[in-house]
Amino acid sequence: MLTEITQIIIAFAVSFIIYATIDVLAGLPREGGVCGARAIGEAVEESGGDLHGGYMLGNIVCSPDASAGTLLAACGVYLFGLTGGLIAAVFVYIGNRICSDKGYAGTAGAIVATFVIWGLANAGIIAPQSFIAGMVLAILVIQGISHKYASILLGKLWRLRA
Amino acid sequence: MIPEITELSLPALICGIVALYSCIRIVLEKNTLRKLPFLNVLTFSVTGIIVLICPTPLGTAAACAYFIGSTLESNAIASTWAKRAEKDKKDAADGTEAGIADGEAAQ
């Protein structure tokens, strides 16, 4: 096993790639799913950011997406292995339906993250609790440091896909 | 009786620091809608802390329920705020038009 800090850094990179890829592929930056997400996107644009990146930030806030799926999958795998991750995917789907979202991004993210985290934990590379810290750091980078630059980065990723 | 903290795990420490940082950012941010992403970071870290401190089936259920509940709350706050802002804008536009019409009528 690697040292704990190295594990957390690798977990951060892996979870960032998982949720950014799935969210962009699921089309979260296209438009705000609910009027609250649209309003957040417009508020981020007013502060000098990108509108599509802002919509993605709004969608992450307003409904459990792939980032929530990755965090809850890490929690599930930490306690009950593969089964726990799949139960977490069901919770994410229920959360999506409550928040009037179709739920593809969140559920797909939770299932993909479950298999990745379980595989890496079984191979003895990264412990699941490092994934919890890694995912918290990954969401901090996007939502918690600078909305302007984060939205510009997400907007660029969206234009690459579109 | 307060339990003694014998071993502070690194993931829990990271979640705690991130939670504290996002609290400070929420307080410092002026725009209500731009507070919500910071609130989301706080939710993520508190969910992580719940699972790391209480690694039991009930702990996981509590973490999932807390996470989904607070996402729903953020959704409700953002939607209400957006609708109110739209209504204010519409009222202001109507008020201006009515004002102009009154002015013309007076002339």
Spatial shape of chain B: elongated
Which strand-content bin applies to the residues of chain B?
under 5%
Overall mean confidence score, pLDDT of chain B: 84
Rg from Cα of chain A: 15 Å
* Intertermini distance of chain B: 79 Å
End-to-end separation of chain A in angstroms reads 40 Å
Number of strands of chain B: 0
Gyration radius of chain B, rounded: 23 Å
**Count of helix runs of chain B:** 3
Structure overview:
- The complex is a heterodimer of chains A (162) and B (107).
- Chain A contains seven helices and no strands.
- Chain A has helices at 4-25, 35-46, 51-62, 66-98, 104-122, 128-144, 147-161.
- With 107 residues, chain B is mainly α.
- Chain B has one domain.
- Chain B is 85% helix and 0% strand.
- Chain B contains three helices and no strands.
Question: Could you name the key traits of this structure?
Answer:
heterodimer; A: 162 residues; mainly alpha; 7 helices; B: 107 residues; elongated
Give me a quick take on this structure.
The complex is a heterodimer of chains A (162) and B (107). Chain A is an all-alpha fold and 162 residues long.
Helices and strands, with pairings:
The complex is a heterodimer of chains A (162) and B (107).
Chain A: H1 4-25, H2 35-46, H3 51-62, H4 66-98, H5 104-122, H6 128-144, H7 147-161
Chain B: H1 10-28, H2 32-53, H3 57-106
Helix pairs in contact in B: 1-2, 2-3
